[in-house]
Amino acid sequence: MGKYMIDHQKQIVHRTAYAGDECHLPETPIKDRSEANHEEELLVFLRQKGYRKCASCFFGSTFEEHYEFDNPPRYV
């Protein structure tokens, strides 16, 4: 599987390893997706074709510096 998944229908680039439900990638038919394995390929879509990076798998909570966990209290 490639390093990046390109959603041609929505013109969004996803990071394959971090793509999840928030990305809504499964809603895009397979025929409207392709893979890119190198940064150079990614830059063609972003700079030349006007595609955007997915807000969830490029900038989502996985990549924030501080995490807040809402753990319920445990009772013994």
Give a nutshell description of this structure.
The chain is an alpha+beta fold and 76 residues long. 20% of the residues lie in helices and 18% in strands. The chain has helices at 39-48, 55-59; strands spanning 4-7, 12-15, 33-36, 52-53.
Overview of this protein structure:
- There is one protein chain.
- The longest helix has 10 residues, at 39-48.
- The radius of gyration is 16 Å and the shape is globular.
- It has helices at 39-48, 55-59; strands at residues 4-7, 12-15, 33-36, 52-53.
- The protein is α+β, with helices and mostly antiparallel strands and 76 residues long.
- Strand 1 and strand 2 form a beta hairpin.
- The chain is built from two helices and four strands.
- Strands 3-1-2-4 form a four-stranded mixed β-sheet.
Helix percent reads 10-25%
Strand order of the largest sheet: 3-1-2-4
Portion in strands: 15-25%
Radius of gyration: 16 Å
Query: How many alpha or pi helices?
Result: 2
Give me the count of strands.
4
Query: What overall form do the CA principal axes indicate?
Result: globular
Distance between the first and last residues' Cα: 45 Å
Q: Tell me the series of helices and strands, N- to C-terminal.
A: EEEHEH
Give unreliable regions as ranges.
64-72
- Class based on secondary structure composition and strand pairing: alpha+beta
The major pleated sheet works out as: 4 strands, mixed
Mean pLDDT: 82
